[in-house]
Structure formats: C-alpha cells, structure tokens
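FAQ: What does the model actually see?

It sees only this:
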Amino acid sequence: MRTLILVCGEGLGHTSRCIAIARELVSAGHEVHFGAYGYSHDLIERKGYGVSIIPSEITLVGEAGALDLEASILATLKKGRFLDISRIKQLIKKVRPEVVISDSYFTGILGSKAMKVPCYLIMNQSNMEEFFINKGVFSRFLGLVVKKFYSSAFRMVNGIIIPDYPMPYTICRKNIIFDDKLMEKVVYSGPVVGSTYEEVLPADVQHPHVLAMIGGFSYREQIFLKVINAANMDLEINYTLLTGPSVDPSKFTQLPPNVRILQFITDQFPYIKSSQVVIAPGGHSTLMETLSFGIPILSFPDRNHTEQQNNASVIAENELGYCFDYNTSPDEILLYIKDIVYNGKFAANARFMRQLSEKLNGAKTICKLLEANALCRDHKKEESKNFRHS
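And it is asked to produce this:
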C-alpha cells in the first residue's frame, strides 16, 4: 500500500504524529511519501522520509505573539495560497498513492477528491468557527464561511481520525462536534506520539524533576519567568525549561542552581519520562505526549485560544492536572507542583492514561484501519471485475 501523508506545518504536533504513523506503516511493509512545508518539511527530511514541498494553507499574522486570525485569512487570500489544489493534484499524480492521509490540511482533501483517491482526515478540532466568536461582524461572516467550507470537506473524506483517547477520556472532546451522519466516519485511534514509554531512556536529571515546555518567547515569556521564580522558592525540586527554536537561553541570567534551560530540542521524550510534572500550554499533541508517558500536567493555555483552553479544562476535569491562566503567581505554581511531587496528586490517573495509550496504540490502529479499507476496496474491485466478465 502506497500512502501519501500531507501535513499541516503550523505547529510541530501535526508533524510528530504523522512521522509516528509513517514509521508504523513502513514497519508493516508499506510505502510512504510526505507532503509538507517549512520546518515540518525539514524535520521529516531529517528523519529519512521522502517528502515534497506543498503550499501552506494560511499565512499567519499577528503582533506580540498574539494571532490575528482575521488578518491571517485576508493575507492568505491576497497571496493566493489558499486552496492551491493544482499543486496537490500534481503531487498525487507523481506519487500515485492508494490512499492519502491529510493531517488538518484541507487542500489535500480537495486534491484527493479531484484525483479520486481515498482520503482520511486526521484532526483534533472540528469547531474552528469558535475562533471568530465575539470578534465583530466581519469575523462572524468569516466564521460562517469557514464552517461551511470544512463541513463540506468532512463529507468528502472516507474517514475522520481523532488521535485521542475514546470517550469519556477524550481530551479534545469540547473541540469535537459532529452530526450523527458524520459520526459514522469518526474513529478515535488513541494518542499518536513519536515514541513509546518503553522504548525511551530517561534523561539524566536530578529528582524530583519538573519539565516546562512553555518556551521563553513572546507572550509566554511571563509564564517562563514565573516558573523560574517558583523554582527559586524551593531548591529541592529541579527544573528543565525548553525554549522555542528562535530563543537564546543565555538571555535568562542569574538562574537558580536547580534550573537548567535548553534551547529547542527535537526529542523531548527522555525529559518527559524523567519528570514528575510537565508544565505546558494547551496544545493537543503536547498533552497527548505527556499523558502517554503517564505524567500529570500543569497547563497554561494561550490567551484567547479556545481550543487550548478547552483542552486544559478537560485536563482539570479529568483530574489529570491543573488548568492555570496567566495571572497565576509563582507561589501558586510552586504550591501545585508540591502537591503533585510530594503528595502524588493525579499520579494514579496519569498512570492509567499511559496504560490506556499503550493498549490503544494509536499509530498501529490507524495502520490497521487503512489496511482493512484497502483490502475492502480491492475486494470490491475484484467483485466488479468478475461481474463484468460473467
């Protein structure tokens, strides 16, 4: 089975889970080719997979780290990038896949439909119109247009894969809304992460250990600094803080002795495995990675980011960690870290999520789904052939 995987490059979470799927497909004897752009393309290439450059679907615009979605859509339309279906059709013609996986990349759905190739959509949010709520008349209009577009796209695909735990454990459940007809296409595969707990060696750190994946940039920098202040209040707890790819760790001076800052790294799993607590925003892939390793979470969802706020609220509701905001003080951060580190808060629930993730094996589930549907299509073709000859 030859598979073409098209990846949304806005955030590396899409890329990491697609690489995990590719690894499973290749290990099962299938061929894989990627379509990606930007840093996502470079990362896939470094992993040794064949990858072609595809157009980005949206040009992101914002100031001081805050995304302006309305301006982003207008900039995208002006540059003519939106729905560049012709390039996707050319790629499909070149690769000749038997199936296309499109991870939140909607142009891939339209290209696959035009080329009559089965397509499966991977996503963890179906209510994107929430970005436009309470943001003016024009934004509401854009929200309606966006909803109409993606609702049509959902109907085109052969299946919709949610890389999350099944209900009632689904972390993105507040971001997923489908009608009864579409639900027939939906599969909850379980988390799809780049490495499994058993195959990862823990990082060499001092314990107890906290990993912060906030990134010391833009509007998140205040959280980054608050974590450092919290660390300074109890030197018995050790911290590793990961910055963004464009941040120089040397800008953070006079660190307490229990804090280490690392510039952007591509393999965070050894540090996740070595931690008793992970501090992160509310991005879906990061939460899946952390829960798959059985670690409680302190989540700081980005301001005005409905998807992240919904994810973080479920983390708190399911007693897998705490949901904070940007007004949380260093004293409060330390208080809740101590509750987890010293009192074992949420440890049992997080361990259950790790065991459930291992049982579900999201990448293998997706591989089997594609194989089963390919076998079904081959069987139908054979039946049709026999019917014509009879």
